[in-house]
Design a protein that fits this description.
Nucleotidyltransferase, domain 5, about 300 residues, about 20% strand, five-stranded mixed beta sheet, 2 domains, 10 helices, alpha/beta
Amino acid sequence: MASPIVISADIGGTHITTSAIDLKLAQVIPDTRIEMPVDNLGTATQIVDSWANALKQTLKKVGFSRLAGISFAMPGPFDYVNGISLIKGVQKFESLYGLNVQQAIRSELLLNNTIPIRFINDATAFALGETWGGSGKPFKRIIAITLGTGFGSAYVEDGLPVIEDYRVPRWGCLYHIPLNNGIADDNFSTRWFVNEYKIRSGKIVDGVRDIAIDAKTNPIAQQLFNDFGRNLGQFLGPWLKLFDADGLVIGGNVSKAYNLFEFSLNEKLRKSNTDTKVVLSKLKEDAALIGCAHLIQHDYYNRLEPLLAKM
């Protein structure tokens, strides 16, 4: 019997990525990936049309006969159980506030109510994808982080996200924790690198890639990565110990420069008596797509749904 297929969508700030996922193999089906730009300041109709268009293009590649459902890795705030956007005050997707995205997508794709359309936080989707088919698979408990335009994070134990527990911070994520006159997100994202590099070197760069290139010859850039790794290790150490995490999975664009902060990060973790194994994302941009696809598995979703209401 042919394996059921899920069409997964990863919603980024300026684009959407869709792929067809083989649910039994937990793998992206080759040549089904679509990436399209999205005007995050557009009207609700424009945004939904863009998302639906990408989904339709992927659907066209595999057909409807094996379609088990549609899944979204979606940034918050969002009502993940009912599919309603709660995003406001972040200068993107604000026109969607209060919209039932689930119903809008169902209408655009002409799907009947027997085909589920489900949603989960994008950072959690990344963590679940790595847990099922990536670098997190060997571990019982992981913290997964994404280092990029923001600092994404999620806790997973025995295949389920951990949201409310004495071992995890509020909401089961780390970005909002106060740190250095700001929050963790300010310290472990691309803008920290860009701002700090300008302060130290006087040079204005577009992103971490430029600084990584400079680090081949520039000691200021080299030290910046060393400091980043040390700061990240100091911040994560207590949380890894409290959760007794046996794995830390790192993804996001900044992880492409991992070799430049690997030593300082691991050295700091060792000094804090943290024996968590640090691994890079195996699935990379496919992780969230594969992770959210598992929402279409009925038994798993029944266990997950009470947790979605707390995200």
